[in-house]
């Protein structure tokens, strides 16, 4: 396993970087040896706790300035790999995060090794990845190279590849694994479920690896009906941190009915802290006396990457809710003693969305909506809520449009019953039913997607309050 950078060196560079100091420009690659040599000569031992938490708003304000500044002294634009966020509102150009190109390649190799050591993918696996390309999104090349780093062979399904062509590719090349974001995995799985039995028997899929978004219990249940003996796993990452943790099949299976997912990460590559929710909202709410929570306690996940040197990521409040736990014995037993002592578990509960939206005088909390949509008996594979103006007769009323894609496997309620449940959930009565637009979709084409990662956006607000 490739180790990360020394924390003290990373903090030394951070001290001279505009993300964390008053410095105008980041150091260029050729400046790093001189900067580090001076720091080591000083004998100063920097402490992570001396750095304040880094908030997305302040970080990206600085990134916006550095991205467009063409001054030759601006190290941010030189020899960099550009990542873009895959989510968002679907409007405007995405914000980018630059990392050193060579550091990015080393990180992919390291996470590829993590995939291999955890038994997720490795030599002998042939994988078809469906991560989209197009626009500025980088998931396709990122995951292809990471999977190759595990020893697997990778086929990249292009964005123009039809589903029947994907099936022929899976059969022709004896592909045993598929990878993509959760929505893409469900799309191909639903298509496979419609194939004749003799066609399905030609498929050799025994591994599925998903990324980018959580997979709900209903999605997992449906996936299991299509691939009864498949090993399901996941990779978590972001534009800022890159890929940093994996969820092996044993962990994915153990948490399939939980409201969280467990990921294995290497402490030589990533340092994690959990802070209480009271820090949220403003840096002023977190003082030097605010300490990280002990292992097992739930709070806001804060990342310090040991794989980012030239543009460090220090104590970054990434927006996920999590807790830290020791490695389970079942996973530890399959690892070398050297790796096992460095691995730990990050339990991720999802994004920190303690916000609400209103419609017809009622406030709806996102966590409550998300929990309801995960009801297994409802069979919802994907949903989207759009708050918009009424398009009929210049009606000034605000419409709540709900788009739903579901499966019809055994154990699910009828469409009529689900309609009644959704009307209850959103408080629909005779006096407001004309402003409630429930649409059942037959495939993923009916959803509004983000412009970069092409992910389904769960909530879209088209109303300017």
From TrEMBL:
SUPFAM superfamilies: Acetyl-CoA synthetase-like. Gene3D superfamilies: N-terminal domain of ligase-like. PANTHER family: BLR5969 PROTEIN (PTHR43845:SF1). This is AMP-dependent synthetase/ligase domain-containing protein. InterPro entries: ANL_N_sf. It comes from Talaromyces rugulosus. The lineage of its organism: Eukaryota, Fungi, Dikarya, Ascomycota, Pezizomycotina.
């Amino acid at each position: 396993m490739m180790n990360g950078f020394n924390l003290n060196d990373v903090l030394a560079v951070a001290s001279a970087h505009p993300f964390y100091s008053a410095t105008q420009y980041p150091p260029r690659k050729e400046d790093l040896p001189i900067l580090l040599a001076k720091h080591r000569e000083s004998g100063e031992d920097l402490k992570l706790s001396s750095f304040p938490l880094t908030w997305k708003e302040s970080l990206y304000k600085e990134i916006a300035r550095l991205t467009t500044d063409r001054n030759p002294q601006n190290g941010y634009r030189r020899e960099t790999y550009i990542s873009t966020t895959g989510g968002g509102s679907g409007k405007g150009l995405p914000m980018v995060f630059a990392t050193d190109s060579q550091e990015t390649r080393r990180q992919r190799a390291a996470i590829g090794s993590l995939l291999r050591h955890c038994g997720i993918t490795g030599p002998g696996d042939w994988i078809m990845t469906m991560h989209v390309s197009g626009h500025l999104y980088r998931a396709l090349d990122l995951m292809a190279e990471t999977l190759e780093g595990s020893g697997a062979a990778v086929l990249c399904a292009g964005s123009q590849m039809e589903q029947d062509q994907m099936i022929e590719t899976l059969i022709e090349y004896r592909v045993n694994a598929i990878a993509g974001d959760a929505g893409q995995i469900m799309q191909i799985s639903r298509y496979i479920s419609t194939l004749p039995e003799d066609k399905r028997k030609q498929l050799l899929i025994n591994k599925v690896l998903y990324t980018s978004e959580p997979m709900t219990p209903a999605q997992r249940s449906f996936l299991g009906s299509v691939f009864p003996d498949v090993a399901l796993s996941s990779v978590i990452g972001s534009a800022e941190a890159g890929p940093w943790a994996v969820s092996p099949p044993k962990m994915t299976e153990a948490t399939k009915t939980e409201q969280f997912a467990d990921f294995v990460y290497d402490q030589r590559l990533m340092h994690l802290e959990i802070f209480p929710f009271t820090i949220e909202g403003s840096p002023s709410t977190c003082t030097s006396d605010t300490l990280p929570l002990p292992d097992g306690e739930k709070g806001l996940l804060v990342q310090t990457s040991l794989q980012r040197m030239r543009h460090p990521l220090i104590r970054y409040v990434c927006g996920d809710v999590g807790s830290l736990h020791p490695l389970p014995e079942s996973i530890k037993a399959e690892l070398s003693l050297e790796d096992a002592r460095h691995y730990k578990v990050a339990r991720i509960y999802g994004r920190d969305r303690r916000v609400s939206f209103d419609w017809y005088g009622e406030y709806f909390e996102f966590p409550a909506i998300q929990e309801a949509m995960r009801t297994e008996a409802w069979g919802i594979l994907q949903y989207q809520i759009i708050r918009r103006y009424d398009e009929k007769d210049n009606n000034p009323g605000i419409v709540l449009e709900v788009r739903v894609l579901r499966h019809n496997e055994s154990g699910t309620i009828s469409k009529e019953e689900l309609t009644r449940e959704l009307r209850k959930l959103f408080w629909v009565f005779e006096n407001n039913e004309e402003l409630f637009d429930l649409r059942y979709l037959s495939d993923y084409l009916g959803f509004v997607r983000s412009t970069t990662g092409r992910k389904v956006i769960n909530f879209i607000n088209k109303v300017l309050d």
